[in-house]
Amino acid sequence: MAVRTKQAPAAPPPIRIRGALRQSGIGWLFITPFVVLFAVFYLGPLLVGIGMSFTDMRSTDVSDPLAVDPVGVENYLRLMNDAAMRRAAVNTVVFVLTTLPLAVGLGLAAAVLLNSGIARLPAAFFRLGYYLPNITSIIGIAVAWKFLLEPEAGLVNRLLELVGVQGPNWLQNESTALPSIIVMTAWRSFGFNMIVLLAALQSIPRELYEAAEVDGAGRWARFRSVTVPSLRPVLLFCTVYSSVGFMQFMEEPLVMTRGGPLNSTLSASLAIFGQFGVGNYGYAGAASTVLFTVIVALAVLQLRLGRRR
Amino acid sequence: MRNGSTRRQRAVVYLGLGVGLALVAGPFLWTALSSVKPEQEIRRDPPTFWPQTWTLDNFAELFDRVDIGTAFANSTFIALVLVATNLLFCSMVGYAFAKLRFRGRNVAFALVLVQLAIPAIVLMMPQFVLIAKLGLVNTFIGIILPTVVTPLGVFMMRQFISDLPDELIDAARVDGAREFRIFFRIILPLCGPPLATLGLITFLGAWNNFLWPAVVAQSEDMYTLPVALNILNGHEATHYNLLVAGSVVVIAPILILFVFLQRFFIQGIATTGLK
């Protein structure tokens, strides 16, 4: 009641209702650009995509929707028996499970070092440097790394040569191709986590550390009992945000390996992109519906687990 | 004693940070330096780190093979249009979510978060079918339309505008100012810092975006830089002199832009992540 009187100080009831209606209209008018775009380009396509996954739609059917027949869950059954798709799913899980701790761990390490009382200017310099890979085009980065990992002219094998080691053909070898992409992705993405974690570290009240020191807590004990608990919500954000992104990795293998050798770097998104490219819309729709469900389920699960503890 | 140990600790911290920076900057430096070496020198064993001969031949050959000028202009044009539409629409929508009371506001705001969570690959195909139906394949409008207002931008502007005092708006309402006037005359002028951040984020995102432009752009005159570089990578997979030059053309403008404008950006990322 108090709030409402503040809104319209001296207005009698009928006008206030009309005013509220008018404000409702204006509110919707202001958000129209978002609502229309969301309905037309996001919600609609999401539902159409799910619908497409239950049909035999192909690229040639775009101009002739009548040629599309429902096929039930056939696409989903085919998905389960598709060796390439299964390989893509396994690769994606391996990629997320290894890149995630690397990217968050390196980000935390960098943030802690930058927050350990070094001077302002060098701290800003390092922070900028670490963040740079994050803002650059993934295609540009992947091309640069392809050259870096090139077996003869590449910097990595040349440096290994100096210490007498013959480096492998990183991206053409089944056992080193995916690990190479994992290292590159961790290299590229840890800076984002660093920025977010550094801001969180700087907002931890100094008194908490002082109180822990008075209680006789050492450096490590202070890190574990003050820093980590204070960072928990932000670490949760970094984990959810990064894993949603990593679940969709695609450009890296597209540029560096085309998913090979022998599908060892084929990711879920790249496999879907490939099916889309050859015109199998219904089948690609089924695969992307599964990927979408897994990503949402994973995010919800992480948020649940993270909040409970 | 204590002084000595802190000094040693500081040295260890700087050493760790320095090694880290070398690892982060190394690939950039190596790529940039390689791009100005002649092709034979790129393949020389043992390698030269610093170029013995400086040359722009790689760039000349690159510009000869691929219409980089057009791709550069396309990328810039698309990014600038998206910056303009996002600055206007995200702040309008953010203002409504922050300060206007209307029925269905919470539901509508939940949709912003829903959109943030839908993976690009899931939307790519049906969005392409839609664009094809609208006759917008291989057009700038087709590339631009799906991101003219982005959920992250709406979210950022809402956070910022929420913190502005209500009294400002109430005073203007009592004066009888219309909502659009309030928005353009009172709110927007106060939004300088978040708009700068949003502008930079939008520019970077549009410039670096690959998947959607790669699907919509079908002829060379519509390619953006990442699309052109990916095509080059497919055709000239082992011509590293061309590839490193292409990589430099894609990455360098963003690095330069970012180094000058980074303070807007890092603050924006940090606060969006925290809230």
TrEMBL record, chain A:
Record GO cellular component, one term: plasma membrane
Record protein name field: Carbohydrate ABC transporter membrane protein 1 (CUT1 family)
Similarity section: Belongs to the binding-protein-dependent transport system permease family.
Annotated compartments: Cell membrane
Spans traversing the lipid bilayer: 26-48, 88-116, 128-148, 177-201, 231-250, 281-301
Keywords: Cell membrane, Membrane, Transmembrane, Transmembrane helix, Transport
Major localization class: membrane
Residue ranges of coiled coil: none
Keyword Membrane set for record: yes
CDD domains: TM_PBP2 (cd06261)
Keyword Protein biosynthesis: no
Organism domain of life: Bacteria
Classification of source organism: Bacteria, Bacillati, Actinomycetota, Actinomycetes, Streptosporangiales
Bilayer topology annotation: Multi-pass membrane protein
UniProt-listed InterPro entries: ABC_transporter_permease, MetI-like, MetI-like_sf
Residue span, ABC transmembrane type-1 domain: 89-302
GO biological process, one term: transmembrane transport
Gene3D superfamilies listed in its UniProt record: MetI-like
TrEMBL record, chain B:
Subcellular location: Cell membrane
InterPro entries (UniProt xref): MetI-like, MetI-like_sf
Major localization class: membrane
Keyword tags: Cell membrane, Membrane, Transmembrane, Transmembrane helix, Transport
Any one GO biological process: transmembrane transport
Location of the ABC transmembrane type-1 domain: 72-261
Cited Pfam families: BPD_transp_1
Source domain of life: Bacteria
Membrane spanning stretches: 12-33, 77-98, 107-128, 140-161, 182-207, 240-261
Membrane topology, as annotated: Multi-pass membrane protein
Annotated Gene Ontology cellular component terms: plasma membrane
PANTHER family, sorted: ABC TRANSPORTER PERMEASE PROTEIN MG189-RELATED, ABC TRANSPORTER PERMEASE PROTEIN MG189-RELATED-RELATED
Similarity field: Belongs to the binding-protein-dependent transport system permease family.
Protein name per the record: Carbohydrate ABC transporter membrane protein 2 (CUT1 family)
